[in-house]
Specification:
The chain has 255 residues and is α/β, with parallel strands linked by helices. Helices cover 28% and strands 24% of the residues. The relative contact order is 0.18.
């Protein structure tokens, strides 16, 4: 197993969009620190909403609705190589996101090396199916990462563990309250309305099974990948399983 940033990110991946469930925000800031260690300037942001980052995640939170947005952003990147941007603060300590067109304007005006975008929400749960208007992924994304937390396996298909369980049921064939199986996750992985929904055709894509922190979980990830290869549907360019918490992963080509 190797470090996540070096395993996932290539030099040409200037815009990275992260979707799905089970660790998106943690992955976004882990990748941001990988950029910083390379001496690269990186902007982290969202097209939906995220919790306001702690200072250990991002030293700078800069709001588009405040004065001198662009000059403050340049100053933060010059000083710390990293800033998180959003439109404004929401009452629940969340950061409202920017639209793809607004982020495109930021890219044109700000000399950042990378932009990392959390492109949908999941209420902190480990599994979801995208809604009709999700995810909100810029078409100029170059690396698309779909995330799922393996701790959902064996859990019942309910709102306690799954965001939009009815949509997951419709795609996977599971009934409400039934335990989530590796085969169900394989079906969700390859379905056109599943994990890869919204991936731009020009982007490299991967499906990342997070929380694979022991041999049992890693075996489960391999079972899901093997089952997905037997099903019709879409395929990512590569599969990943590992642990964002431990900053380790294994990459498996789709072919």
């Amino acid at each position: 197993m190797t470090g996540i940033f070096t395993s996932l990110v290539q030099a040409e991946d200037r815009v990275i969009s992260i979707v799905g469930a089970g660790g998106k925000t943690s992955l976004m800031f882990l990748l941001a620190w990988g950029c910083i260690r390379q001496g690269k300037r990186v902007i982290t942001t969202t097209t939906t909403r995220i919790r306001v980052p702690a200072s250990r995640q991002s030293k700078n939170v800069i709001l588009q609705k405040e004065e001198h947005f662009y000059s403050r952003l340049v100053t933060a990147l010059d000083r710390d190589l990293h800033a998180t941007i959003g439109r404004h603060l929401l009452p629940d300590n969340k950061l409202a996101g920017l639209s793809p067109s607004e982020l495109s304007r930021v890219r044109r005006q700000i000399p950042a090396d990378r932009m990392i975008i959390e492109a949908d929400g999941a209420r902190g749960l480990s599994l979801k199916a995208p809604g009709k208007k999700e995810p909100v992924v810029p078409v100029w994304t170059e690396l698309f990462i779909a995330l799922v937390g393996l701790d959902c396996v064996g859990r019942p298909l309910t709102e306690d563990f799954v965001f939009r369980p009815r949509s997951v049921a419709a795609i996977t064939g599971l009934r409400p309250q039934e335990p989530i199986t590796p085969l169900a996750l394989a079906r969700l992985a390859v379905h056109r309305q599943g994990m890869l929904k919204g991936c731009p055709p020009t982007a490299r894509s991967c499906i990342f099974f997070n929380k694979a922190e022991d041999t049992t979980a890693r075996k489960t990830a391999r079972q899901i990948i093997a089952a997905a290869h037997t099903l019709p549907g879409s395929r990512p360019d590569f599969w990943v399983y590992g642990s964002i918490k431990q900053n380790t992963c294994t990459v498996q080509p789709a072919a």
